[in-house]
Amino acid sequence: MVQAIINIDDHANRVLNIVKAKFGLRDKSEAINIMTRQYEQEILEPALRPEFIERMKRISKEKTIKVGTLEGFRKRYGLN
């Protein structure tokens, strides 16, 4: 666990208190942890998430399917 001393303004302090009360948390550090998890899920691009990188590494190791031309693609997948 990392400990940090931070300076926040009054508004941020009020928001942390609201989050703390809403989720029944013990302290503001738990509120910050919840807020960062939600920020990560909603704001950060998927390419920045570690699980996305791992998924792309697995996919890159899979066998590729060579289709060739558009006609080959249509023939392979039964499209007309």
Tags for this model:
80 residues, mainly alpha, 4 helices
Strand tally = 0
Average of the residue pLDDT scores: 89
Number of helices: 4
Helix content: 55-70%
Spans of at least 5 consecutive residues with low confidence: none
Listing every helix as H and every strand as E from the N terminus to the C terminus, the arrangement reads HHHH
Number of domains: 1
Overall radius of gyration = 23 Å
Shape: elongated
How does this model look, in words?
It contains four helices and no strands. The protein has 80 residues and is an all-alpha fold. It is elongated and about 65 Å long. It has helices at 10-23, 28-42, 50-60, 70-76.
Produce the secondary structure layout.
Elements: H1 10-23, H2 28-42, H3 50-60, H4 70-76
Helix pairs in contact: 1-2
Concise synopsis of the structure shown:
This protein is an all-alpha fold and 80 residues long. It has helices at 10-23, 28-42, 50-60, 70-76.
